[in-house]
Amino acid sequence: MRTRFMALVIVVATILAFSSTTFAQRGGGRGGGRGGAANATPSGPPKDPHDLQGIWGSGGGPLGNDPPPFTPEGERRYLANKPSYGPRAVPPALGNDPMGICDPNGYPRSMQLRPFEIIQIPGRMFQTFEWNYAWREIWMDGRELPKDPTPRWMGYSVARWEGDTLVITSNGFDDRTWLTQEGHPHSDQMTMEERYRRVRENVLEMQMTITDPVTYTKPWVGEKKGLQLLPPGSNSEIRQELCVPSEEAMFNKGVRDPAGGRGAVQVPPTTVK
């Protein structure tokens, strides 16, 4: 009986080894069903196309489409990353996903996991992200991007209106972050353009283009996404979902590492004969 119990523990540990991190990336877990692309019956035209405030579903990630070919340096960086999701997936204990040690996801990866909220005030816009309770500052006071920015997890962003389309340009990204959960890298020379347009009261259209000549041979033009405005109610609040290093270390020691072949599963005491 004890042997059967141990086998069960090992099986469960193996399943869980892909961790809350990987599970969250696939849209599972708490809040996982709240981030889909617009699929409800569209509402009427926006009352104010320049008002983008609200909590929006993530749409499953902002890029989509196949990435462009790598440069030699980009391929080197890509192969050095060992993700726990996608065609090159390895057990998390054997991988090096920055999420596994609670490093910030950075941008645009923060958009892949959970809903995000847009807040507008004079001269600035903020995006707050449910996963890891992160936030991003976007300047709308007419300033230009810095020429030689200090790298930041979320980059440095400025925005302007082109008619009813908000155009955000960004640079200064810390190259320790990944663009996707599959381990697509970038350099600190990456720049980004995002275009947002509120096409209906409950639908925000967005498209992202990444340019990084160090890593990719041409710009990565993402899919045009329709993000759904979450309706009022407790299920549309931005929740505090933090990656806590001490909890992640405990999870690694007790589940992820044993399932990846690092150490043995600790079987709790039992009185079963």
Topology:
Elements: H1 2-16, H2 19-25, E1 54-56, H3 72-80, E2 116-121, E3 124-129, E4 134-139, E5 156-162, E6 165-171, E7 191-200, E8 203-211, E9 220-221, E10 225-228, H4 245-259
Parallel strand pairs: 4-5
Antiparallel strand pairs: 1-2, 2-3, 3-4, 5-6, 6-7, 7-8, 8-9, 8-10
Helix pairs in contact: 1-4
Characterize the structure shown.
With 273 residues, the protein is of the alpha+beta class. It has one domain (35-246). It is 17% helix and 22% strand. It has four helices and ten strands; from the N terminus they run ααβαβββββββββα. The chain has helices at residues 2-16, 19-25, 72-80, 245-259; strands at 54-56, 116-121, 124-129, 134-139, 156-162, 165-171, 191-200, 203-211, 220-221, 225-228. Strands 1, 2, 3, 4, 5, 6, 7, 8, 9 and 10 form a ten-stranded mixed β-sheet that branches. α1 (2-16) packs across α4. The protein is globular, with a radius of gyration of 21 Å.
Task: Looking at this protein, list some descriptive labels.
273 residues, 17% helix, disordered N terminus, 10 strands, disordered C terminus
What would the average pLDDT be, to the nearest integer?
Answer: 81
Overall SS class: alpha+beta
Indicate the multimeric state: single chain
| SS field, number of helical segments | 4
Strand content: 15-25%
First-residue to last-residue Cα separation: 7 Å
Q: Give the total of domains.
A: 1
